[in-house]
Design brief:
two-stranded antiparallel ribbon; globular; single chain
């Protein structure tokens, strides 16, 4: 999905993602964020995370710089010894060439509202 169809970039650096998660976990920041019913997830984000050699995808919640709750998608690989799916972070996966050498996390969603379908039976 291009930015014309889906606003904002879908790749963010790991430090940015860590900041957003920290904001989400902070009680004051979470209380200030708007109530979110769902997330619109761009196909491009799903494809990029699925193109990695992974076993599963984990979604982290955070609060972005606009104060909106968001989902961040991270590929995971199963550690057979521990049984834990461990997060993996690709080095600049290919969309955002301006992010430098930081590991990449996929900003996987836009909040609903405002990106929801008001006519959906899921909203009734």
């Amino acid at each position: 999905m291009t930015e014309e169809k889906f606003p904002g970039k879908i790749e963010i650096t790991l430090p940015t993602a860590q900041e957003w998660v920290k904001k989400y976990k902070a009680p004051k920041e979470a209380a200030k964020s708007k109530k979110i019913d769902a997330y619109l997830i761009p196909l491009e984000s799903l494809q990029l995370v699925m193109n990695q050699k992974i076993d599963a995808v984990r979604a982290y919640k955070g609060i972005n710089t606009a104060g909106e709750e968001t989902l961040m998608l991270v590929g995971t690989v199963l550690n057979a010894k521990t049984g834990i799916y461990e997060d993996v972070f690709p080095e600049n996966a290919g969309v955002a060439k301006t992010l430098g050498d930081e590991p990449i996390v996929f900003d996987g969603g836009r909040p609903c509202p405002p990106f929801g379908d008001p006519e959906s039976p899921m909203n009734n």
